[in-house]
Design a protein that fits this description.
The chain contains 18 helices and 42 strands. It has about 800 residues and is an alpha+beta fold. The longest helix has 17 residues. The protein binds flavin-adenine dinucleotide. Flavin-adenine dinucleotide binds next to α1, β3, β12, β16 and β21.
Length: about 800
C-alpha cells in the first residue's frame, strides 16, 4: 500500500498496457486527481495488439459472484450513452440465453435468481417469446430463454480510445510502441520502470521514475510476473475460437455497419457458443473446444508484431476445433444454412483457476499493483475499484475474490495454474453446482487422518489444496435411526447426502471427530506481536496467556476484512485461526519497517481435530491426566495437554455449538491421536463428521462465515454484532422445513416483484428441524416475525425472519 500523503510531490504513476483495463485506469486515476499518469504500451495506438483489439465485447452481466456482477454493471453504466464520433461504445441490445435441454432450462431459473439478487433486470421467457425477441431463431429445439434487456456489447477498441483521450485531456501521457522491460524496486518500494522503444534495435533501456506502477498487461501478465516480478501468477493465456459468416442474404442492406446489430446477443450454452450480428454477417464464438493454454513464449513479441503486423493476441483458427460450433450455429439459425463461413481466428485471453481477476497491491513492493485477467465486461468497474484502492485506500467493494493473493503459495504452481485454468475454460458455459468439487490436481494436500478417512468411505471435496471430507459413507447406517430422513430436490441434493444429518445428530447427541486441518492458521510472534494484534483486531487481545479471543480484522473504514480466533500462547506469541492467505498478506502489510514480529504459516506442519458433542469430555478425559473439566479448561481458554502421551494444544472452542475442543497436533502425532480418540470413543458411539454436517451445525448457532455472510462491504454492526444502518444480516427459516436453498437466491416481500435482499448461507438445521437461510435485508424487514419469500429456480418459498441463534441461544451446550 502506498501512503500517498507522505509524498512531497503529486504521485507519478506508470501503467503498463493500454488495453481496456489500462485505459480505464488512466481515466479513473486522472478523474481522482492523479495528474501525472503515464501509460506505456508496446503496441501502436489504439489497436495495440492485445485481447482488447479483438474482443467482440459481449457483456452478460450476471455471474454467480455478486461483486463481479456489480463490476459488470458499473462498466455498462459508465460507457453507456458515450460515443467516439459516430461510434457508440455500448449497445444494450440485450442478452438472450436459450435452453435446449431440461437441465439448462432449469438452470436459467437459477440464473434469473442470480440476476434478480444482484439487481439486473431479467425474465425467463417461453420459446415463442424467444422467437419474437430473436426473429429467425429455430425455436424447434428451444425450451425457453433468459432475457436480460440491459446486457449488451462494448466496443472495446473505441472504449480504450475514449477513456485514454479523457485521461489525456486531464494530463495523462500515453506512450505507444514502448515496452517496459524491468520494474525497479528498492528498500521494499517501487522506484520506476525501464523502457525500450519498439522495435528495440540496439537501444539501451531508459529509466522512468514512478511512485506507483500498475501492471495492466493482460495476456502478458504471467510473463510480466515471472520475468519482471519473479513470481508465478495463476493466470494462463488461452486460445479461443471466433469467426464470421459471409454476408447473410436476409441481412444485406438491412443493418448499417454503424448500427451493427439489432437483435440481442444470443447465448447457446448447451453447445457453449455465443453469437451476434455484425451488420450483414453473424459473428460466432466457441467454447466448445479443448482448452488451448499457452506459455508466455508462444505469444509473439512486440518486435515481431512491429515487423509482421500480425497481432500477438491472435493465432490462426484451428478449424477442427471450430467446425462443430459452426455446424450448430447453422442448425440454430436457418438464415445461416446457405451461407459459407468467412474467416476466423483463435483469439487469446487470460483464464484463472476460479475465473476471478488478478488485482491488488503486490506484497513487499510498496507502490506496485496488478490489474490483470479482467474481461471487457468488468473492465471499467475494475478500474474504478483499483483507482479507489490506490487513491483512497478503500476499494469500496468486497475484494476477497478479486485479490490475486487469494491463492495460497502452498498451492500455486505452473501446473496448478494450467490445470485449473483449463478446467475453468471447459466449464465456462457448464451448469456448475456451487459445491461441485474440482477434479484437477487432487490430493495435493492431505491431513495425517487421510488413510482413516478413506477407510471410513469419506467423500472428499477440495479446499485450498486440501482433501476435506464432506461426509462418511460409513455413517450411512445411522440415517435410518433418524426418523424423518431429510429429502432434497435434485439441485440442493447434489454434493449432499442425508448422512450429513446423521453426523449432525451424532454431534448433538454423542460425540464426533472433525478434521479441521484445512483451517488456515498463523503464528504471530516476536517483540511487538501484542501491540500489532491489538491495533488490527477489533477486540482486546492483551489478556492472560491461554486466552482465546474471537475478533474481527477491520479496514480503516470499519469494513470487515476477516474474522479470526486469536490464542495467546506466550507473552509475545499468538496463534491465529484465519480465513486464508489474504489474512497473512494483510497482516504483513501492517508490520512497520524493522518490526521484530514474525508471521508464520502453521497449516502445513500441523493437524487439527475438532472433538465435539456432549460426550466429548468422556472421550478426552479417558486419554489424559490433564484437567479437562469445565473448571480445569474453561470456554474460550487454551491449554497444552497430553493425549495418550502425544502433545496437543487444546482450545475449548466450538464452531458447532457443542461441548468440545479443537486439538492442535504436530502432524507426526496426528494419526496416532486420531486412532486413540477413535478407540476411546467407541464406548460413546463416536463418529467422524464431515463438512456438510459442520456447516448445518454452525448455521443453527448463527455463526457467520466470512466471505459468504459478511465481507469488507459490511460493518460489524451490519453483520449482526450491533444495531444496523443500511442492511442487516438476518436469520430466516423456510416455512416448509423440507425445502432447501443453497445461497445467492433473491428475497422478496410476499408477492413483490423487486428483490429486497439476497441469501448468503443456507442449509438444513437438523437439530432444530428447520431449513435455515441467512440473508441481507433492509433493517425494517429484518425484524423477527416478518414474512418474506425466497425465489428458488421458478418457485417462491415462503420464509419467516427468526430471532437467532436458532439452536441453544443461552449457549449451555458449549459450557457443560
Ligand atoms: C476472441 C476473444 C473474444 C473475447 N470475448 C470477450 C467478450 O465477449 N466479452 C468480454 O468481456 N471479454 C472478451 N474477451 C476478453 C477480453 O478481450 C480481455 O479480457 C480484455 O480485453 C483484456 O484487457 P486488458 O486490458 O487486460 O488486456 P489487453 O487488451 O491484452 O492489453 C494489455 C496491453 O498490455 C500491453 N503490454 C503487455 N506487456 C507490456 C510491456 N511489457 N510493456 C508495454 N506494454 C505491454 C499490450 O501490448 C496490450 O496492449 C475476448 C477476448 C478474445 C481474444
Amino acid at each position: 500500500m502506498t501512503d500517498l500523503s507522505q509524498l512531497a510531490h503529486q504521485p507519478k504513476v506508470v501503467i503498463i498496457g493500454l488495453g481496456v483495463v489500462g485505459a480505464a485506469l488512466a481515466d479513473e486515476l486522472t478523474l481522482r486527481g492523479m495528474g501525472r499518469v503515464t501509460v506505456f504500451d508496446q503496441g501502436p495506438l489504439y489497436e495495440t495488439g492485445g485481447s482488447s483489439s479483438h474482443a467482440p465485447g459481449f457483456v452478460f452481466q450476471t455471474t454467480p459472484n455478486r461483486t463481479m456482477s456489480l463490476l459488470a454493471r458499473r462498466t455498462m453504466d459508465k460507457l453507456d450513452g458515450q460515443s467516439l464520433g459516430d461510434q457508440w461504445l455500448v449497445k444494450r441490445a440485450g442478452g438472450l440465453e436459450i435452453a435446449t435441454t431440461p437441465a439448462r432450462m432449469h438452470d436459467l431459473h437459477r440464473r434469473w435468481g442470480l440476476a434478480t439478487a444482484w439487481g439486473i433486470p431479467a425474465r425467463v421467457v417461453d420459446p415463442e417469446e424467444a422467437g419474437r425477441l430473436w426473429p429467425g431463431l429455430d425455436t424447434g429445439a428451444v425450451l425457453g430463454a433468459l432475457h436480460t434487456p440491459t446486457d449488451g456489447i462494448v466496443k472495446s477498441v473505441a472504449a480504450v480510445r475514449w477513456q485514454a483521450e479523457r485521461a489525456i485531456d486531464r494530463g495523462a501521457r500515453i506512450v505507444p510502441s514502448t515496452r517496459v522491460t524491468a520494474i525497479r524496486r528498492s528498500g521494499g518500494r517501487v522506484q520506476g520502470v525501464e523502457v525500450v522503444p519498439v522495435p528495440r534495435g540496439d537501444a539501451e533501456p531508459e529509466f522512468v521514475a514512478a511512485d506507483i506502477v500498475i501492471s495492466a498487461g493482460g495476456l502478458w501478465g504471467p510473463g510480466i510476473a515471472r520475468d519482471l516480478l519473479g513470481f508465478e501468477l495463476p493466470m494462463v493465456p488461452m486460445e479461443h475460437g471466433f469467426g464470421w459468416s459471409r454476408p447473410v442474404p436476409g441481412l444485406v442492406g438491412k443493418i448499417s455497419p454503424l448500427t451493427e446489430m439489432v437483435r440481442p446477443m444470443l447465448r447457446h450454452q448447451d453447445f457453449s457458443l455465443y453469437l451476434r450480428e455484425y451488420a450483414d454477417r453473424i459473428g460466432i464464438g466457441a467454447y466448445n473446444h479443448r482448452p488451448m493454454p499457452l506459455e508466455p513464449e508462444q505469444i509473439a513479441s512486440a518486435d515481431e508484431f512491429a515487423a509482421t503486423g500480425v497481432h500477438p493476441a491472435i493465432h490462426p483458427l484451428t478449424w477442427a476445433d471450430f467446425e462443430p460450433t459452426w455446424d450448430e450455429a447453422r442448425r440454430l439459425l436457418p438464415e445461416l444454412r446457405g451461407v459459407d463461413f468467412d474467416e476466423g481466428f483463435n483469439g487469446i485471453f487470460s483464464f484463472t483457476p476460479d475465473g476471478g481477476p488478478m488485482l491488488g497491491p503486490v506484497p513487499g513492493a510498496d507502490g506496485l499493483w496488478l490489474a490483470q485477467a479482467v474481461w471487457v465486461t468488468q473492465s471499467a468497474g475494475v478500474a474504478q475499484v483499483v483507482a479507489d484502492w490506490i487513491v483512497r485506500d478503500d476499494p469500496g467493494v468486497d475484494t476477497h475474490g478479486l485479490e490475486y493473493t487469494r491463492f495460497d503459495p502452498a498451492v500455486v504452481s505452473h501446473r496448478f495454474s494450467v490445470e485449473r485454468a483449463s478446467q475453468a475454460y471447459d466449464e465456462v458455459y457448464d451448469v456448475v453446482h456451487p459445491h461441485d468439487p474440482t477434479n484437477r490436481l487432487r490430493g495435493l494436500r492431505t491431513s495425517p487422518f487421510y488413510p482413516r478417512q478413506v477407510e471410513l468411505g469419506a467423500v472428499f471435496e477440495e479446499a485450498n489444496g486440501w482433501e476435506r471430507p464432506t461426509w462418511y459413507e460409513a455413517n450411512a447406517h445411522l440415517v435410518a435411526s433418524l426418523g424423518v430422513v431429510p429429502r432434497r430436490d435434485d439441485w440442493s441434493g447434489r454434493n449432499w447426502s442425508p448422512i450429513a444429518a446423521a453426523e449432525a445428530h451424532a454431534t448433538r447427541n454423542g460425540v464426533a471427530l472433525y478434521d479441521m486441518s484445512a483451517l488456515s492458521r498463523l503464528e504471530v510472534s516476536g517483540p511487538g506481536a501484542t501491540q500489532l494484534l491489538n491495533r488490527v483486531a477489533s477486540g482486546n487481545i492483551d489478556r492472560t496467556i491461554g486466552s482465546v479471543v474471537y475478533t474481527l480484522l477491520l479496514d480503516h473504514n470499519g469494513g470487515v476484512l476477516s474474522d479470526v480466533t486469536i490464542t495467546r500462547l506466550d507473552d509475545e506469541q499468538y496463534m491465529l485461526g484465519t480465513n486464508g492467505h489474504l489474512d497473512k498478506v494483510w497482516l504483513e502489510s501492517q508490520l512497520a519497517a524493522g518490526s521484530g514480529v514474525r508471521i508464520r504459516d502453521l497449516a502445513g506442519g500441523e493437524a487439527v481435530i475438532g472433538l465435539w458433542g456432549p460426550r466429548a469430555r468422556d472421550v478426552l478425559a479417558s486419554l489424559t491426566t490433564d484437567d479437562v473439566s469445565h473448571e480445569g479448561l474453561r470456554y474460550f481458554r487454551a491449554k497444552r495437554i497430553r493425549i495418550a502421551g502425544a502433545a496437543a494444544l487444546a482450545l475449548r472452542v466450538s464452531y458447532v455449538g457443542e461441548l468440545g475442543w479443537e486439538l492442535y497436533l504436530s502432524a507426526d502425532n496426528g494419526l496416532y491421536v486420531w486412532d486413540r480418540l477413535w478407540e476411546a470413543g467407541q464406548a460413546h458411539g463416536i463418529v467422524a463428521g464431515g463438512r456438510r454436517a459442520f456447516n448445518a451445525l454452525r448455521l443453527e448457532k448463527g455463526y457467520r462465515s466470512f466471505g459468504t455472510d459478511m465481507t469488507r462491504e459490511h460493518s460489524p454492526e451490519e453483520a449482526g454484532v450491533a444495531f444496523a444502518v443500511r442492511q442487516r444480516l438476518a436469520c430466516l427459516t423456510l416455512d416448509d422445513p423440507g425445502a432447501v436453498v443453497l445461497g445467492n437466491e433473491p428475497v422478496f416481500v410476499p408477492g413483490g416483484a423487486a428483490a429486497v435482499g439476497y441469501v448468503t448461507s443456507a442449509d438444513q438445521g437438523y437439530s432444530v428441524g428447520c431449513s435455515i437461510a441467512y440473508a441481507w435485508l433492509p433493517p425494517e424487514l429484518a425484524e423477527p416475525g416478518t414474512s418474506l419469500e425466497i425465489a428458488y429456480f421458478a418457485e417462491r418459498y415462503p420464509a419467516t425472519v427468526r430471532a437467532e441463534p436458532l439452536f441453544d441461544p443461552e449457549g449451555t451446550h458449549i459450557r457443560r
